[in-house]
């Protein structure tokens, strides 16, 4: 990201990030980037920070990991609230302020992430080193990299001759081209500087474009092949996520190919060993047979050399060593035993070879699967996926709470007067909402949502076969109790008539959408939104979600001929109401 990128992103997102609490920190697998889960005033957000490169919120999921480095970062910023974010002067260095910590993110080449106390004393850094112009070590005062010295007139003239305006003006070449800057002399250079300054002022006022040029860059101006996004963050998120996919795939392929190369080399070595063992086995067996075939001659040679320890004779192409103290048959037996030893070595080597070849097949399969896993894991997450969610057959979003806190949040923040509120007729059930967008919904839509309200209630966990579900309009639900009464957290008052859907069966269907989301709901809903020809019917059972998710992945991979679905295991687990069983695998047709 350039300075202008950072200026645009902070201008757009400063109010979004201030007051957010750091819920957790992870490393993004296969990269040098960090993934911060933030709890913010309007919604939870995921922030990607990669020193030397980028900062942006992301809507895409990632494969995450924990390391010692991550644990140290967590110790300093987890559960702390971001009080401010700013740029250090006109440098590509971001300063995040917490109550008792400062975090500096250097987006310069070989940039660092540094955490200090409020006096700038270093507590953590992604790299400890003595640079030419500063020291990054624990307990040392943090100093940012010094800015490059200003260009001399002579250097400017040389750069002008080369047409290197990007170096002179300190902005990317795409910005120069988008502004139509063409400089041939010093006066035109002064005009170009004014244009850049005007662009900075416009960005600070929020007056800029959100231009994504696929596979090339993101800039705050319209330019050739520009795709205008809803926000600058969205443009950055899409650009860097696509780049990240390529990087992770390349690194993964490299590691797996190195492993494959070593395996192939080992296989070749063992194949050579087997060939050597076979030759030695055949040789010693042939010698034994020659001794027996030439029994009389060999016995005569032994009798002539009875006082010696060993003798050598030449028969056929072999020079054979004999022990005169032993009979012909015993000498032959020794060679048969040696042949047998080589046969055993060959057999063991062949077993090892078969195992390695099987491992090579699995590695080839793994290489193919990893490519798919990367593609699937880096998918966009929608805001509603933190809840239980589904759709009705006519396309209305259904959301339900996972716990008391989410039930409370749904009713307080997301339930609108014309929405439909549903609840299973049992204590211990999610607040379930159909987001109607102010429209009238059909009875079929309400029945689709009732499946979610019923299956994620306590009725599933206790193994009931069916339960009643009631529904009301959003304006019939209130958090205000009658005078003198108290409503505990997660409880609501329902005013007016309740409408009941009786005997909603404990049957939940599960399928896979085109963009690799796990969709659950009624048969009609899953049949409509599942991109595959098959989907799965679940009922209360004995398999815990982890065990059942493995079975589901196996079924989907085998039936759909898809690879890389293991990365969806957590999503499947989150989609299951509790202990369950697979009742049927259904076809759309």
From TrEMBL:
<dbReference type="Pfam" id="PF05670">
    <property type="entry name" value="NFACT-R_1"/>
</dbReference>
<dbReference type="GO" id="GO:0072344">
    <property type="term" value="P:rescue of stalled ribosome"/>
</dbReference>
<keyword id="KW-0175">Coiled coil</keyword>
<dbReference type="GO" id="GO:1990112">
    <property type="term" value="C:RQC complex"/>
</dbReference>
<dbReference type="InterPro" id="IPR008532">
    <property type="entry name" value="NFACT_RNA-bd"/>
</dbReference>
<feature type="coiled-coil region">
    <location>
        <begin position="339"/>
        <end position="380"/>
    </location>
</feature>
<protein>
    <submittedName>
        <fullName>DUF814 domain-containing protein</fullName>
    </submittedName>
</protein>
<dbReference type="Pfam" id="PF05833">
    <property type="entry name" value="NFACT_N"/>
</dbReference>
<feature type="domain" description="NFACT RNA-binding">
    <location>
        <begin position="386"/>
        <end position="496"/>
    </location>
</feature>
<dbReference type="GO" id="GO:0043023">
    <property type="term" value="F:ribosomal large subunit binding"/>
</dbReference>
<dbReference type="InterPro" id="IPR051608">
    <property type="entry name" value="RQC_Subunit_NEMF"/>
</dbReference>
<dbReference type="GO" id="GO:0000049">
    <property type="term" value="F:tRNA binding"/>
</dbReference>
<feature type="coiled-coil region">
    <location>
        <begin position="249"/>
        <end position="287"/>
    </location>
</feature>
């Amino acid at each position: 990201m350039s300075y202008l990128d950072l200026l645009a992103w902070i201008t757009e997102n400063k109010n979004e990030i201030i007051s957010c609490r750091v819920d957790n920190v992870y490393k993004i697998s296969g990269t040098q980037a960090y993934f911060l889960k933030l709890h913010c005033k309007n919604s939870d957000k995921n922030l990607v920070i990669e020193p030397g490169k980028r900062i942006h919120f992301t809507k895409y999921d990632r494969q995450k990991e924990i390391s010692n480095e991550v644990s140290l970062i967590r110790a300093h910023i987890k559960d702390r609230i971001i009080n401010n974010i700013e740029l250090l002067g006109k440098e590509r260095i971001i300063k995040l302020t917490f109550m008792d910590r400062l975090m500096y993110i250097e987006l310069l080449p070989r940039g660092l992430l540094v955490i200090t106390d409020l006096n700038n004393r270093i507590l953590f850094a992604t790299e400890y080193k003595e640079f030419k112009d500063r020291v990054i070590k624990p307990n040392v005062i943090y100093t940012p990299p010094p800015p490059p010295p200003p260009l001399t007139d002579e250097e400017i003239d040389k750069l002008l001759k080369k047409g290197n305006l990007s170096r002179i003006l300190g902005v990317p070449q795409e910005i120069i081209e988008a502004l139509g800057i063409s400089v041939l002399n010093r006066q035109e250079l002064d005009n170009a500087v004014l244009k850049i300054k005007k662009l900075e002022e416009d960005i600070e006022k929020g007056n800029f474009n959100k231009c994504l040029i696929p596979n090339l860059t993101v800039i705050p101006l319209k330019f050739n092949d520009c795709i205008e996004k809803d926000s600058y963050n969205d443009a950055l998120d899409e650009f860097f996520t696509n780049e990240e996919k390529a990087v992770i795939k390349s690194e993964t392929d490299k590691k797996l190919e190195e492993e494959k190369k070593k395996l192939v080399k080992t296989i070749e070595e063992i194949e050579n060993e087997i060939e050597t063992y076979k030759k030695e086995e055949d040789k010693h067996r042939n010698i034994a047979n020659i001794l027996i075939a030439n029994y009389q001659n060999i016995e005569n040679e032994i009798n002539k050399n009875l006082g010696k320890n060993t003798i050598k004779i030449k028969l056929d192409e072999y020079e054979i060593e004999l022990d005169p103290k032993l009979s012909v048959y015993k000498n032959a037996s020794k060679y048969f035993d040696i042949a047998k030893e080589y046969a055993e070595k060959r057999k063991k080597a062949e077993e090892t070879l078969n195992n390695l070849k099987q491992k090579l097949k699995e590695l080839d399969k793994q290489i193919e699967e990893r490519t798919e896993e990367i593609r699937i894991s880096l998918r966009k997450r929608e805001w509603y996926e933190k809840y239980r969610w589904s759709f009705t057959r006519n396309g209305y979003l259904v959301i339900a709470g996972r716990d008391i806190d989410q039930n409370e949040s749904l009713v307080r923040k997301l339930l609108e007067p014309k929405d439909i509120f549903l609840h299973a007729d049992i204590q211990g059930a999610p607040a379930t909402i159909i987001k109607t967008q102010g429209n009238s919904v059909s009875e079929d839509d309400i029945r689709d949502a009732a499946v979610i309200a019923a299956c994620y209630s306590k009725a599933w966990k206790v193994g009931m076969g069916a339960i009643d579900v009631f529904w009301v309009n959003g304006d019939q639900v209130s958090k205000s109790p009658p005078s003198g009464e108290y409503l505990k957290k997660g409880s609501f008052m329902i005013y007016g008539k309740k409408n009941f859907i009786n005997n909603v069966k404990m049957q939940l269907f599960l399928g896979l959408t085109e963009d690799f989301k796990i969709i659950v709901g009624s048969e009609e809903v899953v049949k409509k939104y599942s991109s595959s020809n098959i989907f799965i019917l679940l009922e209360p059972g004995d398999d815990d979600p982890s065990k059942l998710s493995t079975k589901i992945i196996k079924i989907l991979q085998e039936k759909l001929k898809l690879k890389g679905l293991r990365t969806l295991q957590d999503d499947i687990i989150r989609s299951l109401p509790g202990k369950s069983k697979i009742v049927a695998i259904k076809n759309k047709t």
